[in-house]
Input
Amino acid sequence: MNSLWKSYQISLLALAMWREARGEGSEAMIAIGCALRNRAQKPCWWGKNLIAVITKKWQVSSMAAPGDRQLILYPQEGDKAFDQALSLAGQVINGLVENLFPGADSWYDDSIPAPKWATKDNFCGKIGRLSFHNVDMDTEDIKTEVSG
Output
């Protein structure tokens, strides 16, 4: 991948991390980034690479779900949470941060009812209002609470 596409990939991941978890701190943004990376590393119906995974309709609601309030939000220059998301996205892509929930490939915000796919058996952990799950059950779950 050339450097321009790598920059785009980092920027797109940072935007997803910022939209999904900016209010929950760096651990939550890392967990979102790692869950998306986990999906991209196991190509299937949700996409064959990170860009496809992030932009697939209905998969990351803040990025590709018509009607989601986050879909039209963009960070402005000086947004410290987005600066942090950009830095963390590069670290996630390059494998430089610990994946708090290995195997987690899905999450939901507690402000909505738990989706049918979110079960006790595939629960990996929780950070603030975000619950992380390993829907395809490909690795051992790590059940833990991380303070946000």
User: Anything to note?
Assistant: The longest strand covers residues 123-127. Helices lie at 3-21, 26-41, 50-55, 61-64, 80-93.
